[in-house]
Structures are given as structure tokens and as C-alpha cells.
Design goal:
The protein has 336 residues and is of the alpha/beta class. The chain has 14 helices and twelve strands. The strands form two sheets. It has a seven-stranded mixed beta sheet, with helices on both faces. Strands 2-1-3-4-5 form a five-stranded parallel beta sheet, sandwiched between helices. Helix 4 packs across helix 14. It starts with a strand and ends in a 9-residue tail after the last helix.
Length: 336
């Protein structure tokens, strides 16, 4: 069963928006375009879209089908209302698609179940005892490098990492909203995921919880359900986790990862932290996790970044990315 989205408008913008949404659309979404002058009633009757994005002056709300989620594309930012959903049109197509999914997920028009191809899902985690300043850029660089040849989803479960500033995303729902959506209606998972999903050129990501307290409220069963749904209903082949404060959820994630990269500093207290962490892993229940740990000690990277240049692109390629590539090479063996 495919979800159907239509873009209605006479302008070149409507054509380009359609192409951009098609580029970012999941496989279960069919995207179409119609110019009202070519016969809008006949088009709507034949397609019967689930979501309809229409430009101002392209159609009157009264002429649109009642069983469709009709969203007005506005040239100016205005407040949304439940009776008349709107989206500011001058945004990236991927962001417009995310907001459209978010509006549709809240509409309760249909109880949609979207099944995608099931693939083997590999997971990699990043963690540091006591915290490490470059854990975020290091893990993002890793996701970007692997996203060239894989479909990668990046998830950040660490507090105050600077991710929102780095990726310049200040709005939208986050990981907490995804977990809440799963708890409420598992059968609508595909829609919940699309409503929180953001995109870069090489990987998709979900914003971290806005309230760090939510990190402690995530239950093991929440993650079990999330991992199962990602395996069954998406085409992601690699999940990259950026993990923060240790709790049961973080431990469960690491237990299911193929490798866990653990940052340690080559200093006296860095070695003290590493030693205590190793003693913690020596407990019988965590023996299997200890075998997955790869300790990494990145060199000072302050001089790796050029002041004034785009920081994200420097993280994704260049000297910093070269170091990430070397330290996370498959040939790297875990330290015993």
C-alpha cells in the first residue's frame, strides 16, 4: 500500500518542489504534480491523494476533497491552525516533506501501515567515560563517511552536545516525540519516523531530546520496539548511536552493536577513567560488551579546522575525516 502525495500549482516552483520531494520520498510514497488548468477535479478523482500540497490561488479549500489532508503552501511564515494546516514554502523540499508527514500523522485520516524491505541492520555506538568534547563531530564524520555507500540513520542520545547548532536545526520534533509516538500507535511508526526525520547529503538523523531528562525515561522495551520497527519497516543498513550518560537504554544499545568506539584521553585522569570503566565491564553480565569496545584517542584537532569555513563540511571531509577513517578502520582490533 502506497501513500499518495500531490503538489498542486501552476508555477515553476511547484514543479521543482515535486521533483525535490520525489528525491527524498521513501519507497512507499507516490508523489504527483498537477496544474489546475489541466483539470484538477479529474486529477483528484483519479489519484485520490492522501496528502495535498497546494499553492495560494491554485485551488479554493472548498474545491479540495474532504478525505485528504490539504496543506496550503504560503510565501510567508504564518501560524498553523488545526483547521487549516499551512507550511512555509521557501524551505528545503526534505523539510517540507517532513512537516507534511508530521501534519498527516496527527490528522488520523487513515490508520496506515507501511511495510518496506527488511534488511540486515548493523549498529555502531560512540561513548566516552566522563564525556569527550569531540565525540559528536567524530561520530557525525563516521556516519557521513559510511553514508556514501550505505543508508545511514544517526541518533544522538547524549545531552548538550552542540548538534542542533552544528546542523543548524532549531525546530521540529525530536527523539522523544518518536518514542512517544511508538508508545501510542506502533502501527503508525512509518509516519512517526518521517515526521521527525531530518536529512544531510550522506545520512538521515533525528534531533536529540530537547529535555535531557527524557534520556533517563527511555525504557528498554521502547528501544526493543524501535529497533524491531527500524529493521522491519525501513531500508536503513547502519544505525550510528552517539551515547551519553550510562543507563539501561544505553547499555542495551551497546549490547546490540557490532562495535562500540570508546573515547579516552591520553592523560592521567583519562587513564583513571578508562581503568574504572574496564572494571565496570569486567562484571559477568557485560563480558560480551567488553569484547566489542574499541578505545580511540584522537589527536588534538583544533588545528584541523579552518576558521570561518563551514564546520560541518570540514567534519565530513578533510584532515579530521581522514583521522576518523583511520581510527575506525575495520582492521582496528578491540583492546583487551
Amino acid at each position: 500500500m502506497k501513500l499518495k502525495l500531490a503538489v498542486i500549482g501552476e508555477t515553476i516552483y511547484a514543479d521543482r518542489l515535486t521533483e525535490c520531494i520525489q528525491k527524498h520520498a521513501p519507497e512507499y510514497l507516490k508523489v504527483s504534480n498537477c496544474k489546475p488548468s489541466n483539470g484538477l477535479p479529474e486529477f483528484l478523482e483519479k489519484l485520490q491523494p492522501d496528502i495535498l500540497l497546494y499553492e495560494q490561488n491554485a485551488a479554493s479549500p472548498e474545491a479540495l476533497p474532504e478525505n485528504t489532508v490539504n496543506i496550503l503552501l504560503t510565501p510567508e511564515k504564518v501560524s498553523d491552525t488545526s483547521n487549516h494546516p499551512v507550511i512555509f514554502q521557501y524551505q528545503q523540499g526534505a523539510e517540507i516533506l517532513r512537516q507534511a508527514f508530521q501534519i498527516y500523522a496527527k490528522s488520523d485520516k487513515k490508520n496506515l501501515i507501511c511495510w518496506c524491505n527488511t534488511q540486515k541492520l548493523e549498529m555502531t555506538a560512540f561513548f566516552s567515560p566522563g564525556g569527550y568534547e569531540y565525540q559528536l563531530p567524530f561520530s557525525i564524520s563516521y556516519a557521513s563517511l559510511h553514508g556514501v555507500h550505505n543508508k545511514v540513520l544517526y541518533l544522538n542520545l547524549a545531552e548538550f552536545t552542540g548538534m542542533i547548532s552544528l546542523l543548524q536545526d532549531t525546530e521540529g520534533e525530536d527523539f522523544s516525540d518518536l518514542i512517544y509516538g511508538i508508545r501510542q500507535k506502533k502501527e503508525r511508526f512509518a509516519l512517526c519516523l518521517q515526521s521527525v526525520l531530518h536529512h544531510t547529503d550522506n545520512f538521515d538523523y533525528i534531533q536529540p531530546p530537547a529535555n535531557p531528562q527524557d534520556l533517563h525515561d527511555i525504557k528498554k522495551e521502547d528501544l526493543t520496539c524501535l529497533l524491531s520497527l527500524l529493521q522491519e519497516q525501513t531500508e536503513y543498513t547502519l544505525l550510528v548511536w552517539n551515547c551519553g550518560t550510562w543507563n539501561q537504554a544505553i547499555e542495551q544499545i551497546m549490547m546490540n552493536c557490532s562495535r562500540v568506539f570508546c573515547f579516552v584521553k591520553e592523560s592521567t585522569f583519562g587513564k583513571f577513567r578508562k581503568k574504572e570503566f574496564q572494571l565496570f565491564l569486567d562484571k559477568e553480565i557485560r563480558k560480551s560488551l567488553k569484547d566489542k569496545i574499541h578505545y580511540v584517542s584522537p589527536q588534538t584537532v583544533n588545528n584541523s579546522f579552518t576558521s570561518g569555513a563551514d564546520l560541518l563540511s570540514q567534519i565530513q571531509c578533510g584532515e579530521f575525516a581522514d583521522q576518523v577513517q583511520i581510527l575506525t578502520s575495520p582492521d582496528t582490533q578491540p583492546e583487551q
